[in-house]
Amino acid sequence: MKFSEIILQSFRTIQQNRVRTIITCCIIGFGIMSLVGILTAIDGLKTYINKDFSSMGANTFKIRNRGMAINIGVVKMAPKIFRPITYLEAQKFKKLFENQHPVDIQVVSNYTGLLKYQEKKSNPNVLVFGVDEDYLEVESYHILKGRNFSFGEMNLGKQVCVIGNDIALKLFGEQLDGVGKNITIDGRRFQVIGILESKGSSMITSDNFALIPITNYKFFNNSNNASFILGVKVEQSSELETAIGAAKSKMRLARKLNPRDENNFEIIKSDSFSELLVENLSYATIGGFVIGLVTLLGAAVGLMNIMLVSVTERTTEIGTLKAIGARSSDILKQFLIEAIVVCQLGGVLGIVLGIIIGNLVSLMIGGVFIIPWLWMFLGILFCLIVGLLSGIYPAIKASKQDPIEALRFE
Fold first, then answer.
1. If you count Cβ atoms within 10 Å of the first and of the last residue's Cβ in the chain, which end, N or C, has fewer?
2. Which range marks the domain in which residue 333 is found?
3. How many domains is the chain partitioned into structurally?
4. pLDDT at site 252
5. How far is it, in rounded angstroms, from Cα 176 to Cα 183?
6. pTM above 0.70?
C-alpha cells in the first residue's frame, strides 16, 4: 500500500468510530489540559508579579535594617535583622547623599490606624507612615488634590496629613473634597492638605494609607527601637548599581562602621522581592509539570487500552487488508497514524481548555492573561510521544495477525 493510502485508511477508520475517537480525544485532552492549565496559571502569576513590582519603579531602592522574608510552601527564608537605623543616622545619610540622588526618610507609625471624618470612618487597618517632604517624589506618588508637605510643616511637626485615594473615597465620597478639612487618626486631629492619585490595589500597592510629618511619628509609635527606612531614586535604571555602591559607602559612614566591619543594613531593590517570589514559584512550576505528566501518563494508559480493544474488534478487517496485499508494515503504520492523529486532536482540545482554565485561575488570583507558547509546543510534542508510546504495542500486535486466522475470527 502507498503511504497516502495508509493515511486515508487511517482517517476513514477514525471517522467510522466517532464515539471511540471522541472518548479517546477527551482522555488525552484532559491530560494535556491539566499540564497546560497548571503551567499557564503559574506563568500568568509570574508575569503579574513582575509587572506589579515594576510599578514601584525600576530606578529606586531602599535601605533598611532587615532583609526580606518569604514563605512559599516548604520554602522558608528568614530575614537578616540588624540594629535599628536611627533618625540621626538617616538624616546623616540624607545629607551625605542627597546631592547625588533624591532621598526620603520614612517610618511606619502605625499598622492599624483608624481615620474618621464626622460620622464616616475608614477600616481599622490603615497604614500610617511618618515621612519627609521628599517621600512623594522618591516613591513616585502624585498629588490629585491639594499639596505636599512643606519644609516648615516638617520642622514644626504640624498636625497635617496626606491621604491615599481609597481613604478619601470612604471619608469624603466621590467628589474627594477633603482638602482643608479636619479628620482624626486614632483620636488625634489632623488637617488634610493633600489627596494622592490612585495606584490601584495589588499584592504590593494599596491606596489605604495616610502620611504624616516624620516628626510626628511618635504620636502612634512610642517605641524607642523604631527603625527608619531610606528611599533613593535615580534618574535612569542604568545608574542603579552605581548608586547602590555609593549609597553603601555613605551608609557605612552614617552608621560609623570600621573598614573591617560588615554592613549592618540591607539594600532592597524594587525588583528584589519579585525576583525572590518568581524564584520560589519555580518549585510550583516543577510540581505542576510533574502533576501534568502523571495525568498525561494515565491518559496514555487509557489510550493504549482503547487501541488494544480496537485491534481485537478489527481482527477481520486486518485479515481482509492482508489478504488483498497489505504488508505487516502497512498495518503497523496505519495503527500508529491513528493513535498519533487521535492524540493530536485531543492535544488541541486540551491546549485550548488548558489556556482557558489556566488563565481563569490566573486572573482569579490576580494574574494576567497570557498565551503560553512554550507549553503549547510542549503539549503538541507530548501528544506525539504519547501517541507513539500508546500506539506502538497495539500496532505491533495488529501487524503480526495471521491473515487466515484473522479472516476466521468472529
1. C
2. 3-52+276-408
3. 2
4. 94
5. 14
6. no
